[in-house]
Amino acid sequence: MRDNKKLYLVIPCYNEEEMLGITNEKLLEKMKSLIEQKLISNDSRIVYVNDGSKDKTWEIISGFAKEYELVQGISLSRNKGHQNALLAGLYTVSDYCDITISMDADLQDDINAIDEMVKKYHEGNEVVYGVRSSRKKDTFFKRTTAQGFYKIMKMLGVDIVYNHADFRLMSKRVVKELMNFREYNVFLRGMVPLVGFKNDIVYYERNERIAGESKYPLKKMLSFALDGITSFSVKPIRMVMALGVIIFTLSIAMLIYSLISHFLGNTVLGWSSLIVSIWAIGGLELLAIGIVGEYIGKMYMETKARPKFIVETYLKDDEDDNN
Hints:
There is one protein chain. By secondary structure, the chain is an alpha/beta fold. It is 49% helix and 15% strand. The chain has 2 domains: 7-215 and 307-322, Spore Coat Polysaccharide Biosynthesis Protein SpsA, Chain A (Alpha-Beta Complex); 235-304. An 8-stranded mixed β-sheet has the order 7-5-6-4-1-2-3-8, sandwiched between helices. Helix 9 packs antiparallel against helix 10 (271-304). The longest helix is centred in the last third of the chain and has 34 residues, at 271-304. It is elongated, with a radius of gyration of 25 Å. The two termini are 24 Å apart.
């Protein structure tokens, strides 16, 4: 078993003023319990990352940092999205801790699974994924779409852990290797497995949100899924190419059919087939342009090499500067 290590919980927050009081109370209890069990060192911390919130989220985090020794806060200069806020927290604390655990502020991820995650780290694992044991609490629509997303990602050849979101433990070594990934379009569920190293899984039952509203409405979920697919697979382009070959083959058959109809004097009969062919080919062209455009757009953003986030403030212990 490894010696007691310094754990930093990294928690992205966007407009979570209603939830933070509950979250902080529960996490303080959990951290103190882990310290008492000697699973982590007493220098471990809870780090909230304010992702450009428009409410009093940062004021609350700042108050926690002043009141509780175990709490620290990071504020980004503007809203950069969940994945970038998570990266900002991980990268910023990587010089001060030995292991990190990322989770959302809504406490839907079971904090009791943290104990097992840390134990698996002590057993030699560099990455421990928190995986939902079931989706019984989800609506039919959310359950169906989520499971469909994971199946599509697997079908496209993306190495992704089924039913895993962003509740995971990573060692300092893994975070440092993750920093070598330079892409602008961040999809951590696909990036972390690419790092490799020994890993394991902890299963847990996901809880209902206690307060506040979900920060992932349908529009954001669809955008997130599209980012995941186009950031890790070129198969959609190949599928369009294959579909183009099929349509071209069918168009030749339609040409032969039209010529035969013409010589037999049944030109009116072929009108429907002609219209259907025009619409099918036109729709295919627009679809192909859209998919290729999505990839070109990502290449455009990558070539700019803009920073994924900018940390405006980091409220931490003075002693951390000497580590």
